[in-house]
Amino acid sequence: MENNEDHKWEDLCLQCGRCCFEKIENEDGTIFFTATPCRYLDVVSRECKVYERRFTINPDCIGLTPELVKSLTWLHDECGYRSHFGLKRRPTKKDAGPNGDNK
Ligand code: SF4
Fold it and tell me: Does this model's pTM top 0.85?
């Protein structure tokens, strides 16, 4: 059974569904989001169609915890969980300025 802390944590999610699209990481660590959604994502409502059973039905689904949110490099900056911690993506070579410094 979920408690109030679980609800407070999950309320941080903006339900944008962006984390539920396949991602590709290139050799310099840059993450590209594809247009391919998880098969269980309703792309119109952006809701998971199997939310209560998602970890059983899809072993690839990840339950976000504060520790994971702080360590994952592929959540976008506007994600409600990342925003909660004021996190920004780790700069990549692509983000580097003309002198190699990161903006
Ligand atoms: S990217 Fe973040 S805010 Fe958007 S659905 Fe995923 S967990 Fe929620």
Answer: no
